[in-house]
Amino acid sequence: QKHYCRGLCYLAKLFLDHKTLYYDVDPFLFYILCEYDECGFHPVGYFSKEKSSDLGYNLACILTFPAYQRKGYGRLLINFSYELSKMEEK
Question: What is the pLDDT of residue 52?
């Protein structure tokens, strides 16, 4: 799973010029949104958040892959991150 998460970070760096890369992905939780069709699951975007954020941030990085933009997935990821924060009482 670490390799998959590192791969996501490297892939995000291709599309986000301000993205900071960390080799260690252990301090982060990754939430990946996928579409499903007859060929299987396809990641459309993801967000990561720090397991423990001193500043109370609910997102570390968010990305919707270009082929899936303008379909509401980014808004869904943001809303989901806020709902998680509410459940965690942060």
Answer: 86
Sign, CA dihedral 2-69-53-82, equals negative
Average pLDDT over residues 58-87: 93
Alpha-carbon torsion angle 66, 72, 78, 83, nearest 10: -150
Compute the distance between CA of residue 55 and CA of residue 85 in angstroms, rounded to an integer.
Answer: 13
**Phi, psi dihedrals of residue 44, rounded to the nearest 5°:** -110, -20
9 φ/ψ angles, rounded to the nearest 5 degrees? -65, -45
For every residue of 4-52, DSSP letters joined together read HHHHHHHHHHHH-TTPPP-S--TTEEEEEEEEEETTEEEEEEEEEEESS
Lookup: tokens for 54: 């001193």
